[in-house]
Write a structure and sequence with these properties.
It contains 19 helices and 20 strands. With 486 residues, it is α/β, with parallel strands linked by helices.
Length: 486
């Protein structure tokens, strides 16, 4: 039979299962005495953790390592250079057996049981009466992971997944909420109204802003008051929308940032470009509305003006809009124009960087963009359309640098001709990375004299980047997926 245990005060704990081996609790150890038996590196790690939790330590070990010696200088810490004796448990609420002798550890456990003191035996969880969990620390938010002693390795792996899932500033968010609980209790006396308010708060653009580190205390207060007001007058429908300008990276969904993934799971609508592949879109919350605003062959491009209007319309309806762009939103992505339009309309914005195509291409084709003696600087350029004439081609043709051309696939011959005309030697290495980081990535390695012809033969398709400079030789060396050399 499955049972469910619920803690009625805050409904925060539900444990399902036939029985519970261990009950997770959080101990307030401030000012409490804890016995630590052991003087080695393992004991030192536990000692540091216990001291961080405010415990007063009694350390028992005939010999101690340097770290323990250092920890013993903490005020209140007692050190006994003797063997373990049950009498040392007097006045302790908890004991940790951290010696490398199973026999001593077992004696601590038995003495603890007899004296009614909780005992944790390090690395031998079945002997003691309590376990030390793996911890994800976003204080005051703490996640404790236990496997009932079945597998510390599994606990560590779970911890790594949860670490990646929980935003770094989760603690700040919790503190921001905690500091305002009184205000909410006063404004919304009904429990259900308060519960609904907090749900909305943690879903809100304000909460995301706190997690992104994009708010100061005054912003938080103002945003919070607006949310409280909206909750008191639900008809006013004043829930604020926001735009999250998110870099989708060069294509491989695993190159999304953690913040991008977190926000893509929260948005109500996503406006995306042609460069955002389906595998990345698949990471967007399933019930979010998807709006394509790129240019498709044979169809009209959504104008930049129309994109601004859409962003403002959606946010005006209180929606959280993910504006998802290929690569980085601040690199050849008209991010600046969108930022200006949104600032004018008073819409809050969070910008999330992405791996720009040049960086994605460089790593997946294994081309270092800088290299001692070959390139001291790197330059990202777009040579599209009329703007190309205004570029400083002499500077781009200079040696000892790497120049990465975005949006150049269609005008390769012109780019190459201009570089050579302005002094670049035809022997200068050049590489093309097509569909970088995607399953069908291709790399062409050559020189200015032949790269355009190679691209024509191979019918290179957009998106592709041209990388010019001595470092492009690396493209010929690397056995990357799909490499084709001259
Ligand atoms: N904001 C984007 C750039 C948009 S401009 C970024 O930071 O990456 C579009 C150009 O980027 C394309 O024409 C192409 O040159 C380049 N590009 C984008 N994704 C690419 C990819 N996966 N492989 C190669 N080039 C890419």
């Amino acid at each position: 039979m499955r049972q469910s245990y619920e803690w009625p005060e805050d409904n925060s704990v539900t444990i399902n299962g036939d029985f519970v081996d261990y009950l997770p609790v959080f101990l307030d150890l401030r000012g409490q005495r804890v016995l630590l038996v052991g003087g080695g590196a393992v004991a030192a790690r536990k000692a540091a953790l216990l001291q961080a939790a405010g415990a007063t330590l009694r350390i028992v070990a005939p010999r101690r390592c340097g770290e323990i010696e250092l920890l013993c200088t903490q005020p209140g810490t007692e050190y006994l250079a003797v063997a373990f004796e049950p009498a040392q448990l007097a006045g302790c609420v908890l004991a940790i057996a951290a010696t490398d002798t199973a026999d001593v550890n077992a004696r601590v456990a038995a003495a603890g049981r007899a004296a009614g003191v909780w005992v944790n035996v390090v690395d031998e969880q079945s002997t003691g009466s309590c376990l030390m969990p793996s911890i994800v620390d976003r204080s005051p938010v703490i996640v404790a992971i236990g496997t009932g002693g079945a597998s510390p390795t599994l606990a560590r792996r779970l911890r790594a997944s949860i670490e990646a899932l929980l935003p770094e500033r989760m603690g700040e968010l919790a503190r921001a909420a905690g500091a305002r609980r009184g205000r909410v209790r006063a404004a919304l006396p009904a429990l259900t109204a308060r519960q609904r308010f907090w749900e909305e708060f943690f879903d809100s653009a304000l909460a995301q802003q706190i997690l992104a580190g994009a708010s100061n205390a005054a912003d938080i207060d103002a945003g919070f008051d607006a949310l409280v007001d909206a909750a008191r007058a639900p008809q006013a429908a004043a829930r604020g929308g926001a735009v999250w300008l998110i870099g989708a990276g060069p294509g491989d969904p695993d190159l999304l940032t953690l913040r991008a993934q977190q926000l893509l799971q929260q948005c109500d609508v996503v406006l995306y470009d042609r460069l955002v592949p389906a595998v990345v879109l698949a990471r967007v919350r399933r019930d979010a509305e998807r709006v394509f605003v790129g240019k498709e062959p044979g169809r009209h491009r959504t104008t930049q003006q129309r994109i601004h209007e859409l962003l403002i319309e959606h946010t005006g309806r209180g929606r959280r809009v993910a504006r998802l762009k290929g690569g980085d939103p601040m690199v050849f992505a008209r991010g600046g124009e969108e930022l200006l339009a949104l600032a004018q309309a008073g819409v809050p914005v969070i910008v999330v960087p992405g791996v720009t195509a040049a960086l994605g291409a460089a790593s997946s084709a294994r081309i270092p963009l800088t290299h001692r003696g070959a390139a001291q600087s790197v330059c990202f350029v777009t040579a599209m359309g009329e703007a190309a004439a205004a570029l400083d081609w002499r500077a781009l043709a200079a040696p000892l640098q790497t120049v990465v051309f975005y949006m150049g696939a269609a005008q390769l011959p012109q780019i190459v001709a201009r570089l050579v005309e302005h002094g670049a030697p035809p022997e200068r290495p050049a590489a093309i990375v097509e569909h970088a980081t995607l399953a069908d990535q291709r790399v062409l390695a050559g020189h200015l004299r032949d790269i355009a012809a190679q691209a024509a033969t191979a019918t290179v398709r957009s998106p592709a980047l041209l990388i010019v400079g001595d470092v492009a030789q690396f493209a010929g060396l690397a056995p990357a997926v799909g490499v084709k050399t001259a």
